[in-house]
Amino acid sequence: MNVRRLPIPTAVVAAAAALGLGALSACSSGGAAAGDTDKFDVVASFYPMAFLAEQIGGEHVHVTSLTQPGQEPHDLELSTQQIVRLQESDAALHLKGLQPSVDEAIAQSEVGTKIDAATLTSLEDHEDEHGHEDGHEDEHGHEHEHEGGKDPHVWLDPVKYAEVAEGVGKAFEKADPDHAADYRKNTEALVGKLHDLDAAFETGLKNRKTDVFITTHSAFGYLAERYGLIEEAISGLSPESEPSGARVKELTRTAEADGVTTVFYETLVSDRTAKTLADDAGLKTDVLDPIEGITDGSRGDDYFQVMESNLKSLQTALGAK
């Protein structure tokens, strides 16, 4: 669509040349040039943002995700080609605090429309297993901190995700007014589906035997808060942080005291820690997907299908009738 096309900074051009990238019209995963289409070109940071852009934009948008399927988004480092792609886009959609390299690239870019999903709903502090705000080292000694200690995983709460969707829809309407009516209609339809999903979780998790569930990664704080559950995470908000031996023993006692049957792991991170804890405590394992990306191993083809699978897994684990 090329709503606003600005010159690419000299530093980016030089870096691209140094890497032998040639022409600067970077191709998206779909094969079309991000800055060279007749549509509203949106670069999204990772799957939950790309899904919103696609659902709201419909036929009027061309969406490129910076995080590829199967790639762990927390540790994403952008290539020069991706930075060029971002620079040539009409809009950038991200969730500040989740991917530092993306936040920095968007802040430094001259993209006409910058949409930070973290400003479209309220973010909260969800403490880690030691009672501290997030800030963990993984097994490689890398520190992972989220913006202001806030938990960014808002898309796992359908109500908060709907709030973000409404904000994205308004931003699209403002940036591409020729298609505002369609963006508004698509946003309303998406928000309606998210409210239906919320109702399904509310109903489906009633009459449960326990409120407690154990996960490898503290991604489900908003979901737990929404439906009155208690998430006990083996690790903190960083999916790669390693738990202490004391934490593993504490979770074993918690599982026995609260009637926990299952240790949940996720699709993009190793299940080794979950299975070790489950074996020690005599528990089962199952998938609870934080939907940071869709892969061939996902239990569904899109956000709604995977969330429905998550609901079924929780119902089984919590003994919901």
- What would you report as the Rg, rounded to the nearest angstrom? 20 Å
What is the arithmetic mean of pLDDT?
83
Count of alpha/pi helices = 10
What would you call the structural class?
Answer: alpha/beta
Uncertain residue ranges: 2-35, 128-147
The strand count comes to 12
Major sheet size, sense and barrel closure: 4 strands, parallel
Strand content: 5-15%
| Shape assignment | globular
* Span between termini: 50 Å
Strand order within the widest sheet? 2-1-3-4
Helix content: 25-40%
Order of helices and strands: HEHEHEHEEEEEHHEHEHEHEH
Structure write-up:
- With 321 residues, the protein is α/β, with parallel strands linked by helices.
- It has ten helices and twelve strands.
- The longest helix is centred in the middle third of the chain and has 25 residues, at 180-204.
- α1 packs antiparallel against α3, α2 crosses α5 and α5 runs antiparallel to α6 (180-204).
- The strands form four sheets. It has a four-stranded parallel sheet, sandwiched between helices.
- Residues 2-35 and 128-147 have low confidence and may be disordered.
- 44% of the residues are buried.
